[in-house]
Automatic annotation (TrEMBL):
Entry keyword Ubl conjugation: no
UniProt name for this protein: Tyr recombinase domain-containing protein
Superkingdom, taxonomy of origin: Eukaryota
Species of the source: Zophobas morio
Keywords from the named record: DNA recombination, DNA-binding
GO biological process terms held by the UniProt record: DNA integration; DNA recombination
GO molecular function list: DNA binding
Transmembrane residue ranges: none
Domain annotation Tyr recombinase: ranges: 99-309
InterPro entries for the chain: DNA_brk_join_enz (IPR011010), Integrase-like_cat_sf (IPR013762), Integrase_catalytic (IPR002104), Integrase_recombinase_N (IPR010998)
Organism ancestry: Eukaryota, Metazoa, Ecdysozoa, Arthropoda, Hexapoda
PANTHER family for the chain: CORE-BINDING (CB) DOMAIN-CONTAINING PROTEIN, PHAGE_INTEGRASE DOMAIN-CONTAINING PROTEIN
Length: 313
């Protein structure tokens, strides 16, 4: 790679991926230093031995080793990543330690919505509660990642009598995979104004209008002074706090589980897979929803309750 083009080439890799690769490089550097192996070796045998060393020392699953392979393939000469012996070795790890979905079950969005209804009696809502309510509603009704919701700007919000359209122009993980930038549709739900996301969005923009400095465009602001744009971690904390108050087990489910809960709920109610894929940013041929996100409701008492219900009254 010509030195002048290195920065451009590195831009092809997402910052989060580079941070993930950095873990692999630290392990590889330490291993090479201890074994006296050149860091930029051309020997695939050394790479396989290194991965076997990690396999013996850790309980990491297949996905971790595949990430190590990708990281090393980026810096080692030749086509190490496609070496037949390395591919065979990784296939063995995949069988021995298969990658498991993070969640086997999910939670019912209705329990969170019922909790959010209780906020309706407090008007006007404190900014902290209004912020948490809005980000939770948007996460549920759009099925989007926090990454996309964090990127929302006021200039991208277009409203009419039916609701709002929010255009995300920045690159997201789903836009890279699908080739399309997300467009979030936020309908008015006047049958139940207490959980109407469009009304909540309007209330939030009105409440933060005087708090914005220098024509700040980021939708979400910190609830405390000096009201800087909220980070993705702050949005995550707001959702986590809301889930906990709603009775969702946050020792198991993270804020990202809103994506599992909403998409699984949509499927249970009969919404077509095409619409679910389109809304969540997956392609029509993607198996992501079926393999990772479509999960049954978590009900640890289902079996016992079913047996007891067979008894005659």
């Amino acid at each position: 790679m010509p030195p002048a083009a290195i920065t451009t080439a590195i831009a092809s890799i997402a910052p989060s991926t580079l941070r993930q690769y950095n873990v692999s490089y630290k392990l590889w550097w330490r291993y090479c230093s201890e074994k006296g192996i050149p860091v930029y070796t051309t020997q695939t045998e050394a790479v396989i031995t290194f991965l076997q060393h990690l396999y013996t020392k850790t309980n990491a699953a297949y996905g971790t080793f595949n990430s190590h392979r990708s990281a090393l393939a980026l810096i080692l000469p030749g086509d190490v990543g496609n070496d037949s012996n390395l591919r065979r070795f990784l296939k063995g790890i995949k069988r021995l330690r298969p990658q498991k979905p993070k969640y086997q079950t999910t939670w019912d969005p209705s329990r969170v919505l019922e909790h959010l209804k209780t906020y309706f009696s407090h008007h006007p809502l404190p900014l902290s509660l209004l912020s948490a309510k809005l980000i939770t509603l948007l996460a549920l009704i759009t099925g989007q990642r926090l990454q996309a919701l964090h990127l929302i700007k006021l200039s991208q919000i277009v409203g009419d009598e039916q609701g709002f359209k929010i255009f995300i122009d920045d690159t997201t993980k789903t836009s890279i995979r699908s080739g399309e930038h997300p467009c979030l549709h936020i309908p008015y739900f006047l049958d139940q104004p207490a959980i109407c996301a469009a009304t909540t969005l309007t209330d939030y923009m009105d409440a933060t209008k005087t708090l914005r400095k220098n024509d700040e465009q980021a939708l979400f602001l910190c609830a405390r002074k000096p009201h800087h744009p909220a980070s993705k971690q702050t949005l995550s904390r707001w959702i986590k706090r809301t889930l906990e108050k709603s009775g969702v087990d946050i020792s198991i489910f993270t804020p990202h589980s809103t994506r599992h809960a909403s998409s699984s709920s949509a499927k249970r109610t009969g919404l077509s897979l095409a619409i679910i894929n389109k809304t969540c940013g997956w392609s029509n041929t993607s198996k992501m929803f079926a393999e990772v996100y479509n999960r049954p409701l978590r009900d640890t008492f289902a079996f016992g309750r079913t047996i007891l219900q067979t008894a005659k009254l």
